[in-house]
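batch_manifest entry 22 of 60
target: (rape) hypothetical protein
source organism: Brassica napus
requested by: lab member K.T.
priority: normal
notes from requester: please return tokens only, no post-processing; we will run our own comparison against the previous entry in this batch. if the run fails, retry once and flag.
--- input ---
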Amino acid sequence: MLKEKEKFEETLNSNGSSSNSSEVPRLAYLISGAKGDSHMMMRTLQAVYHPRNQYVLHLDLEAPPKERLELAMSVKSDPTFREVANVRVMSQSNLVAYKGPTMIACTLQVVAVLLKESLDWDWFINLSASDYPLVTQDDLLYVFSKLSLNVNFIEHMKLTGMLNS
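--- output ---
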């Protein structure tokens, strides 16, 4: 564990940006859904998928076990996901009220899993099953490669100028 932490710390320099400015950042995604959302979760996953990134899928407690199993089997049956092994389906689901503290608790649980299993990511993005990207992953990774790792919120309008320059 100590070696992973040292490796993580070595990737940062004093101003908080990547030590190698041409290095493409790695993203960690939480894609969450409720009962009936498993197909949309797979659609979102496929739309934002990049082999450098980490992904965690969480179906809340109201989803039936059969749907959760089907989601896990969809991930396991995909040859790319299986080979790269960067997509996880949370086996322990939480009851999530999307306007309350349970969503924050679920997000923190996923972040804890990601930190425990892999420190090989720079940014965390929280998506719901109904989200769909407006830019390609390559464009998104390019934008993130130009940002300091000390930034924790990005305004959309500032991104468009970076893509055009």
